[in-house]
Design brief:
heterodimer, A: 7-stranded mixed beta sheet, 4-stranded antiparallel beta sheet, 11 strands, B: about 0% helix
Chain lengths: ~110, ~110
């Protein structure tokens, strides 16, 4: 069964460092998403991406965050200067279509900022 | 999102049916009801969705009331591996597939 894959599974970084989280969505999917979940809290929407541009973003997704689809297969989330409060699980998801289509999530990347 | 209300937690005996309720009284006529689950901090997993009619797939059944103000997710023969947080989500139509996760229902399947 096709799946969304994410790397790394766990990254530890120092505050202020740049981090790039990578995702390989399901190959025929056109819509891509990043969510995050701080330990013990709800899963939060960060950003959606379609046709090489952001279609929607939350208030969490500030100037420190960016997304990119550099090569037609990978979908990346970059955090430019990490803060302690960026420590969370980051989930990538993809879907084949919007409106009535289900999202397929990866297993997540755990980011720990020290 | 149309507000959804779910019980905080439920217990179910292994092998029995788990019936998870959800209220979504402000749902609009063209909004779908989605169910996802999250097993121990893994990525959320899609289970099922529906608009008006009852739906069934290999994982579960979804029963939507005629007025669409509530729904029930049914896991027909719950196993220990079904222990998870179950989310009922009604995304506004204009937001496409942007899902807003609430606290969900913690389902504990016990042997």
């Amino acid at each position: 069964e096709p799946e969304v894959t994410q790397t790394p599974s766990h990254q530890v970084t120092q505050m202020g460092q740049e981090v790039i989280l990578r995702c390989v969505p399901i190959s025929n999917h056109l819509y891509f998403y990043w969510y995050r979940q701080i330990l013990g809290q709800k899963v939060e929407f960060l950003v959606s991406f379609y046709n090489n541009e952001i279609s929607e973003k939350s208030e969490i997704f500030d100037d420190q965050f960016s997304v990119e689809r550099p090569d037609g297969s990978n979908f990346t989330l970059k955090i430019r200067s990490t803060k302690l409060e960026d420590s969370a699980m980051y989930f990538c998801a993809s879907s084949e279509r919007t409106l009535g289509g289900e999202l397929f999530f990866g297993e997540g990347s755990r980011l720990t900022v020290l | 999102d149309a507000k959804t209300t779910q019980p905080t937690s439920m217990d179910c005996a292994e092998g029995r049916a788990a019936n998870l309720p959800c209220n979504h009284s402000t749902i609009s006529g063209n909004e779908y009801v989605y169910w996802y689950r999250q097993i121990h901090s893994q990525g959320p997993q899609y289970i099922i969705h529906g608009l008006k009619n009852n739906e069934t797939n290999e994982m579960a059944s979804l029963i939507i009331t005629e007025d669409r103000k509530s729904s029930t997710l049914i896991l027909p023969h719950a196993t220990l591996r079904d222990t998870a947080v179950y989310y009922c989500i009604v995304p506004p139509r204009e937001y496409g597939n942007k899902l807003v996760f609430g606290a969900g229902t913690i389902l504990r399947v016990k042997s």
